[in-house]
Amino acid sequence: MTDTDFGFRPVDPRADAALLHSWITHPKAAFWMMQDARPADIERVYTEMAADEHQEALLGLRGERPVFLMEKYDPAHRELVGLYEARPGDVGMHFLTPATDTPEHGFTRAVLTAVMARLFEDPAVRRVVVEPDVRNTAVHALNAAVGFVAEREISKPEKRALLSFCTREQFTRAVAR
Questions:
Q1: What's the pLDDT tens digit per position in 10-38?
Q2: Alpha carbon distance 55, 83 (integer Å)
Q3: N or C: which end of the chain has fewer CB within 10 A?
Q4: CA–CA distance, 129 with 171 (Å, rounded to integer)
């Protein structure tokens, strides 16, 4: 499986709310901190995101079937405002692979590689910024595998996060290995 096995389409808040609700409220997605969300809450969140020029939500597709969620945001305007000095070309990112009864070896890494490749398709993007929960060691390892370097812990209102960055060059070197 490679990162080219995936396509992308914008989240349709109304049509995709039930699917996203099943993914985001699953215990595997505890770090999304939306365990008690109702489908209407999910629809509202993604409707607001779709209307916000500083955010975008995409479904990752295998064929026509949604298999992961990707969120892109401008860290100078969302999520990290005042928590670090944003640079021109910075883009923030979240991704979620849903729980499955039939895990596929290498799937999550292929998803993250596809997400990063998608972000770096934009020549204006110089580095990707992430802020996962400090306790989410699995995602820290995945991030490192695609070139992220942890800078420091930061306090966000909802969590203690590990601020990490990945330049285009770091990503290219990491995936070439």
A1: 999 999 999 999 999 988 878 787 888 89
A2: 18
A3: C
A4: 12
